[in-house]
Amino acid sequence: MEHAHHQTLVEFSYWLAFMTGILGSGHCL
Hints:
By secondary structure, the chain is mainly alpha-helical. The protein has one helix at 2-26. It is rod-shaped.
């Protein structure tokens, strides 16, 4: 349970960082 929750949090963190990088470099907001 706890390990699975940690895995989900890690995946979400990677996704969030990826999206932030794309929006930051691709779109001049």
